Amino acid sequence: MDAGPEGYFNSSMLFKASILTITFTSFYFYKTGKQMNFLRMPFAKKEEIVVKPAKKPVAKKKRKTIYLTFDDGPCKGSKTVLSILQKEQVQGTFFIIGEHVYGSKEQMTIYDSLKSCGLLEIANHSYTHAFKNKFFQFYNSTDSACNDFKRCADSLHFANGIIRTPGRNIWRTGNFSITDLKASKQTADSLYSKGFTAVGWDIEWHFDHTNRLVQSDTDMLQMVDSAFAKNVTKTANHLVILTHDRTFQNSDDSAKLHHFITALKQKDAYDFELVNRYPGLGNDTLIDK
Interior CA angle at 12 toward 11 and 17, to 5°? Predict the structure, then answer.
C-alpha cells in the first residue's frame, strides 16, 4: 500500500534528522580529537638566554724608547756605527769631541758623513775631553770647563745646547738634576746656567784597556729588559745607552752592536729616538735630585 503524503513527510524528516545527527556527531569527534591531540602535545621548552660576561679589552703595553748614544768620535769606529744604523734605519746620537774632528783629514770626512746622515744627531762632548782626561782639574776649573764646551759648540756650529760631560754621568735637564760626583756639581750647574743641557746615561756598554767590549750583545739585551722591568731608568719608559765609537773598530764587536740592534727591533716593544726628544729637554724648570 502506498504511503500517504503524511507518511512521506515523516520519513523525509526522519532521514534529514538522521543525516544531521551523523554530521554533528562526526564534527564533534573531529573537533574533540584535535583538542585532545593539542593537549597531548608537549609544550616547547622556553629557550634559556645565556648572558656571557663581556671580555675586558686587552690593554696594549706601552712602548719604550731607547736612545743609542756614541761618545768620543769621530774615529774609524764611527764609520762602522754609521753603516749599521743606516742599514737598520735606526736613529742615534753622536757626542763629538772637537779636537777629534780636526785631528786628521779622515776624521773630518767621517764627521761630515755623520752630519749629512738624516738618521743621526750630533752633540757636544767638549773640545778637549776634559783637558785630555784630566778630570779632576777640569771639573775644578769651572770657567775653563765651560769655555771648553763653548769652544766645541762654536767651532762645529752646533744648533743645540745638548752636551755630555766627559768621564761623568751628569744630568741637567728641565725635569731633574743628577750629579754622580759632588765635586763636579758647581761646573755642571754653571754649564746649565749658560744654556747647556747635560744628558748622562742609564746603562753603559763597557770596554777594557784594549778597547774591546766587556758585555756580549745578549748581556746588553738583558740589561735593557731588566732596566725597564724594574723601572730603574732616570725617566720611566725611557732609556739612554752609552757606548763608545772606538770599540766598534773591531769586526767582532761591531757584529755585536749589529746583533744587539736587530734583537731590540725584533722584540717590537722599543722605539729608537734622538736625544733631543728626551723628556724635559728645553724646559726651564730644574728639579734637584
Answer: 95
80-95 per-position pLDDT tens digit? 999 999 999 999 999 9
- Rg of the chain over all Cα atoms, to the nearest angstrom: 44
Percent of the chain residues topping a pLDDT of 70: 76
Distance CA 140, CA 196 (A): 18
Joined grid coordinates for residue 241: 745607552
Q: Whose grid coordinates read 768620535?
A: 73
- Rounded CA-CA distance 261/205 in Å is 13
Report the pLDDT averaged over residues 51-65.
71
Q: When comparing pLDDT for 89 and 36, which is higher?
A: 89
C-alpha cell at 126: 767638549
The whole model's pTM is what? Answer: 0.79
CA nearest 139: which of 198, 98, 207? 198
Task: Tell me the backbone φ, ψ of residue 122, rounded to 5 degrees.
Answer: -105, 130
